[in-house]
Design a protein that fits this description.
This protein is α/β, with parallel strands linked by helices. It has 3 domains: about 130 residues, Trna Endonuclease, Chain: A, domain 1; about 70 residues, no CATH class; about 80 residues, no CATH class. Helices cover about 50% and strands about 15% of the residues. The protein is built from 13 helices and 5 strands. Strands 1-2-3-4-5 form a 5-stranded mixed sheet. Helix 6 packs antiparallel against helix 7.
Length: about 290
């Protein structure tokens, strides 16, 4: 499961999420923004950096590492990267802190003695997701992080609970972002299932997801551009063709002709089915049916 990308998407959606994990977050946590930076000489790639607001003077920079596999030199790398970046940008920051997120203590590197000062000095915060408490009692964004750690026999039930809770507690704008994140987490967790099968497992429909909304919005925009006289069917054909070309490259004339000859109800079915296609072979198989 590709958890790194999930966690960084969570941080992008809700930068204050990191500070919900800390006992003493900065007073201006709401003003932080999430970024990914490169440190040169030598070049380090630091994926998770939380930068304080620039208009409030020198602030504290937070480095974040999500570690779901044991790395026996993790602390060596994290502290080297953090110290070098802090050195190169010393005028911008008054201090630095590091947050390491683990699924459990078993993932942490064994030899931590050389780093005892950092680890015991309050500058480094180790978060073990399995020790945060019952997923149902956690803040919703923190609960999403814990959802990534659950076994397959537990995850669907808790995901459905979080979906219900999201619809009840979260505003419409945030609601859509959280639903999309839950779906993304479950698609990664159940890689053997199609997106449609995951939606069915969770009891949600494609209409609740960002991908569906974007496609429908493109369809409306395409319809306006082509003009009312070309009709809904022509706009749908054009949209499907664009989506398929963007994902798989230029379509053959035969495929274009076949799609253009489909009635509108079948075209609408195809606009949803294509989200599960991984190649033009899947498209051809669908058309053959």
């Amino acid at each position: 499961m590709r958890r790194d990308s999930i966690f960084y998407k969570l941080f992008q959606q809700s930068p204050t999420l990191l500070f919900q994990l800390l006992a003493t977050p900065p007073s201006n946590a709401e003003a932080y923004r999430f970024d990914s930076v490169a440190v040169k000489e030598p070049k380090f790639e630091i994926d998770g950096v939380f930068l304080p607001p620039e208009n409030q003077g020198a602030g504290v920079v937070y480095f974040c590492e999500v570690q779901f596999q044991t790395d026996e030199q993790l602390y060596e790398r994290v502290f080297a990267e953090s110290a070098l970046y802090f050195y190169r940008n010393r005028a911008r920051f008054s201090d630095w802190q590091a947050v390491i997120i683990y699924p459990s203590r078993n993932t942490e590197q064994a030899d931590i003695h050389p780093h005892r000062s950092f680890l015991n000095g309050g500058q480094v915060h180790r978060v073990y997701l399995n020790e945060l408490g019952n997923i149902r009692s956690l803040p919703i964004w923190v609960a999403l992080m814990v959802l990534t750690t659950l076994e397959e026999n537990q995850a669907p039930e808790e995901a459905r609970y979080l979906l219900t809770r999201t619809r009840q507690e979260v505003t419409e704008l945030g609601n859509k972002a959280i639903i999309e994140m839950i779906l993304t987490i479950m698609v990664y967790k159940f890689e053997q299932l199609t997106r449609t099968e995951v939606e069915s497992m969770l009891g949600i429909t494609l209409k609740e997801t960002r991908v569906y909304r974007e496609i429908k919005e493109e369809g409306r925009e395409e319809g306006r551009e082509q003009g009312r006289e070309e009709g809904r069917e022509a706009a749908t054909i054009n949209l499907i063709t664009r989506q398929l070309t963007k994902r798989f490259g230029e379509l053959s004339e035969e495929m274009r002709s076949t799609i253009a000859g489909l009635p509108l109800p079948v075209l609408e079915d195809l606009s949803e089915a294509l989200l599960d296609f991984t190649s033009l072979a899947d498209l051809q198989a669908w058309l053959d049916k």
